């Protein structure tokens, strides 16, 4: 809606839609920005993402090409979307205030075995988003163990702690907060035990790459696996320190996170048949710290496909009696891989201050940006014909009728 | 959904199959199953018995004969698309076979099943009508049916109950003739919303043997006779082609419509696609 309005405004003002957006984007901020609606965005660099997307697209060149093609009666369209999304739900207090029937925190248990292997039980339960991998990488990276030494358990409520679900792009944004809390507790306890074993003061113990060592004399050190073994056998514990190396943590985020980005779609519209050919799709997204680039790209790919599906193909059609006419996969068009050009992706990394790792959500950004980007591209292509609005999905017949109406 | 209960027979020869079709009440041939099985699952069809003809060796294969290409009913779309013989003698048929559905459909679906099913969105009926194909039916003895007589109505052919389609024969195209099949694909099913086939022989700058077949728009594919006539003997200029393409609508009565494309839009597409097809075959 907003993205359509911005484009319509640009057309009214006879301005380039990029310039209208540039004038209205919030300048870069790293420590909260309160917007007119009362929400405080965490961090953002919207112009940075837009500039990168424009550069990747070769925007000026595309506009030139569009002009040349129009002169030949061909309709190329360039569509933009700059978005900021509210996700990583959210402070539980907000959940209570808005009447949501639950909390919005997450939990994790990290258990370091004497063998050096790590079991992690998380309350959040991914269903295809790949957090088994993402979480294992976080634990491996933070505790200096191999990623194969980490086992993530989720969704088995006999074993796992409470969680509030994977949605609102909150899995990693909130779940990693709990994970990092438990990891910090593990490290703290390991430090105390190391100090005792090395007969040093806790304040002098430092940690790096899976090793605890005495400040200034790195040869006096213990690997984290050694410490885990000593904690588990408990042959020589300092007074007051319980055996074992296990921690549980709950994380209630202080705010939402606000990922953002800029997407550009390039389409060619056949004005005779109303068919739309997607030529290019450029996506620059910022989800804060990127943990696994391939998983992030996968989330973006799927999101883009789904969002474009809404713009171009997917529709539940009912007749006047309420009978569903698009009731089978032979009638209801879900997007298929062959419908798309290769997506051109890039990231910018603006960390959030809301959680320890600086991660924002990425699960939904593609669906948010791609529907308006493609719609704007089609509208841009048809601008010289006077077409302003077409109902979604933009099927060939709807496009053809809109052109016919605008012409008559 | 599950299909209603049915008997299953798997004959090894055409003679056996024909006998079973005659003998077993409510029986129906099963070829690739890509149209029949979905229909059974939706309970749009509930044959009492299936006569699976997929293991009858004599029903598949492609031969170049003096009458043209003879293609066995059980020959799959994929086999036709990949056939060197078809590519040589009738490239447009191989191209058409290659854009049916998706790979799975092309690997299972057969030319016999497609034409016997006579789906208005199917691709073969349109191209076979264009190419003046002949259909061979067996039931004890053989009979030949011309394409113009074969497709009778929505999902209805002139095959009689108990008759098995054994092969399709495509006469050779006159030398110098060029043909093309254009398809507006449904984004969900892949079937043709509109399929346009055109054939033209340009002789000394004039169009001869002009044929235009339109599928997807009406219950059976139709030849656009008025349009064909307008272009015959004329030079293939953009004006003449446009005039012929405009006349396509004359051939169309009661166009089909669905939520994706109305009848009016299909007629429009047929005309635009005819124009493009004619430009392609005369260019
Ligand atoms: C997802 C999907 C997409 C598709 N897309 C397309 C497309 O783009 N274009 C297209 O043209 N088709 C398409 N089809 C249909 C496909 O080509 C079918 O395979 C074809 O229509 C039927 O062939 P079959 O061998 O599967 O026949 P079956 O389903 O086995 O049989 C179909 C009918 O023909 C009868 N029959 C079969 N063989 C004979 C015979 N030798 N003699 C007498 N009767 C016979 C059967 O009794 C039945 O009534 C699609 C199908 C699917 C499932």
Account of the 3D structure:
The complex is a heterodimer of chains A (408) and B (283). Chain A is of the alpha+beta class and 408 residues long. Chain A has helices at 2-13, 17-24, 46-57, 59-71, 92-97, 131-143, 171-198, 224-233, 293-312, 365-382, 396-407, and strands at residues 33-34, 40-41, 75-84, 106-112, 118-122, 150-154, 205-208, 211-214, 217-223, 246-251, 260-269, 276-286, 343-347. Chain A folds into two domains: 2-85 and 258-407, Aldehyde Oxidoreductase, domain 4; 95-251, 2-Layer Sandwich (Aldehyde Oxidoreductase, domain 4), CATH 3.30.365.10. Chain A is built from eleven helices and 13 strands. In chain A, the strands form four sheets. Chain A has a four-stranded mixed β-sheet, sandwiched between helices. A four-stranded mixed β-sheet of chain A has the order 6-5-4-10, covered by helices on one side. In chain A, 42% of the residues are buried. The mean pLDDT of chain A is 96. Chain B has 283 residues and is α+β, with helices and mostly antiparallel strands. Chain B has twelve helices and 14 strands. Chain B has a five-stranded antiparallel β-sheet. In chain B, strands 11-12-13-14 form a four-stranded antiparallel β-sheet, sandwiched between helices. In chain B, strand 11 (177-185) and strand 12 (192-203) form a beta hairpin. The radius of gyration of chain B is 19 Å and the shape is globular. The mean pLDDT of chain B is 97. Bound molecules: flavin-adenine dinucleotide. Flavin-adenine dinucleotide is lined by residues 28-36, 38, 53, 73, 100-101, 105, 108-110, 112-114, 116-117, 119, 122-124, 159, 164-165, 189-191 of chain B.
List the helices and strands and how they pair.
The complex is a heterodimer of chains A (408) and B (283).
Chain A: H1 2-13, H2 17-24, E1 33-34, E2 40-41, H3 46-57, H4 59-71, E3 75-84, H5 92-97, E4 106-112, E5 118-122, H6 131-143, E6 150-154, H7 171-198, E7 205-208, E8 211-214, E9 217-223, H8 224-233, E10 246-251, E11 260-269, E12 276-286, H9 293-312, E13 343-347, H10 365-382, H11 396-407
Parallel strand pairs in A: 5-6, 12-13
Antiparallel strand pairs in A: 1-2, 3-11, 4-5, 4-10, 7-8, 8-9, 11-12
Chain B: E1 7-9, H1 14-23, E2 27-30, H2 36-41, E3 49-52, E4 62-65, E5 68-72, H3 77-82, H4 84-89, H5 91-98, H6 103-108, H7 111-117, H8 124-130, E6 134-139, E7 141-146, H9 147-150, E8 151-153, E9 156-157, E10 164-170, E11 177-185, E12 192-203, E13 206-215, E14 222-223, H10 225-231, H11 238-246, H12 263-282
Parallel strand pairs in B: 1-3, 2-3
Antiparallel strand pairs in B: 4-5, 5-10, 6-7, 6-10, 8-9, 11-12, 12-13, 13-14
Bound molecules: flavin-adenine dinucleotide.
């Amino acid at each position: 809606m907003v993205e359509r309005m911005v484009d319509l405004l640009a057309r009214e003002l006879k301005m380039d839609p990029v310039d209208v957006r540039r004038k209205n984007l919030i300048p870069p901020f790293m420590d909260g920005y309160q917007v007119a609606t009362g929400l405080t965005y965490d961090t953002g660099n919207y112009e940075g993402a837009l500039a990168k997307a424009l550069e990747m697209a070769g925007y000026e060149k595309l506009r030139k090409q569009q002009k040349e093609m129009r002169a030949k009666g061909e309709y190329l369209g360039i569509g933009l979307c700059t978005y900021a999304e509210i996700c990583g739900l959210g402070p539980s207090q907000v959940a209570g205030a808005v009447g949501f029937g639950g909390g919005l925190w997450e939990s994790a248990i990290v258990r370091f075995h004497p063998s050096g292997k790590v079991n992690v039980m998380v309350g959040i339960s991914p269903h295809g988003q790949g957090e088994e991998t993402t979480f294992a990488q976080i634990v491996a990276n933070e505790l200096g163990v191999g990623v194969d030494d980490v086992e993530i358990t989720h969704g088995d409520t006999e074993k796992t702690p409470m969680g509030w679900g994977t949605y609102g792009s909150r899995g990693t944004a909130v779940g990693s907060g709990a994970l990092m809390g438990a990891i910090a507790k593990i490290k703290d306890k390991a430090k105390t035990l190391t100090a005792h074993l090395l007969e040093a003061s806790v304040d002098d113990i430092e940690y790096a790459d899976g090793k605890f060592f005495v400040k200034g004399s790195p040869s006096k050190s213990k690997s984290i696996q050694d410490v885990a073994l000593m904690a588990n056998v408990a042959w020589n514990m300092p007074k007051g320190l319980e055996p074992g190396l296990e921690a549980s943590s709950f994380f209630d985020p202080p705010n939402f996170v606000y990922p953002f980005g800029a997407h550009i779609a390039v389409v060619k519209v056949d004005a005779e048949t109303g068919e739309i050919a997607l030529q290019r799709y450029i996506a620059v997204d910022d989800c804060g710290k990127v943990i696994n680039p391939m998983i992030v790209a996968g989330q973006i790919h799927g999101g883009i496909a789904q969002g474009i599906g809404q713009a171009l193909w997917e529709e539940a059609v009912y007749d006047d009696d309420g009978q569903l006419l698009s009731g089978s996969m032979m009638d209801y068009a879900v997007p298929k891989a062959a419908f798309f050009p290769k997506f051109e992706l890039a990231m910018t990394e603006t960390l959030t201050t809301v959680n320890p790792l600086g991660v924002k959500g990425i699960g939904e950004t593609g669906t948010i940006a791609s529907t308006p980007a493609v719609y704007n591209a089609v509208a841009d292509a048809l601008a010289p014909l006077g077409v302003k609005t077409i109902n979604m999905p933009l099927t060939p017949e709807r496009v053809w009728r809109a052109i016919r109406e605008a012409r008559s | 959904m599950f299909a209603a209960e049915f008997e299953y027979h798997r004959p090894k020869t055409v003679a056996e199959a024909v006998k079973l079709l005659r003998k077993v009440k409510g029986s129906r041939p099963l070829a690739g199953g890509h149209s029949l099985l979905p229909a059974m699952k939706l309970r749009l069809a509930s044959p009492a018995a299936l006569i699976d003809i997929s293991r009858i060796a004599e029903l598949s294969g492609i031969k170049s004969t003096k009458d043209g290409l003879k293609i066995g009913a059980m020959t799959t779309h994929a086999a036709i698309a990949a056939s060197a013989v078809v590519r040589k003698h009738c490239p447009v048929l191989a191209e058409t076979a290659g854009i049916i559905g998706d790979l799975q459909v092309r690997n299972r679906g057969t030319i016999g099943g497609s034409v016997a099913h006579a789906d208005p969105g199917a691709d073969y009926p349109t191209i076979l009508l264009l190419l003046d194909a002949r259909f061979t039916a067996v039931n004890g003895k053989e009979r030949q049916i011309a394409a113009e007589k074969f497709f009778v109505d929505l999902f209805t052919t002139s095959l009689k109950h108990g008759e098995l389609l054994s092969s399709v024969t495509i006469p050779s195209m006159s030398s110098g003739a060029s043909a093309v099949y254009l398809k507006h694909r449904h984004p969900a099913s892949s079937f043709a919303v509109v399929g346009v086939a055109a054939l033209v022989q340009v002789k000394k700058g004039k169009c001869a043997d002009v044929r235009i077949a339109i599928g997807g728009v009406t219950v059976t594919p139709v030849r656009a006779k008025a349009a064909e006539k307008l272009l015959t003997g004329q030079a293939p200029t953009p004006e003449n082609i446009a005039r012929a393409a405009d006349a396509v609508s004359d051939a169309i009565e009661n166009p089909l419509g669905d939520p994706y494309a109305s009848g009016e839009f299909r007629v429009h597409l047929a005309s635009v696609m005819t124009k493009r097809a004619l430009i392609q075959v005369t260019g």
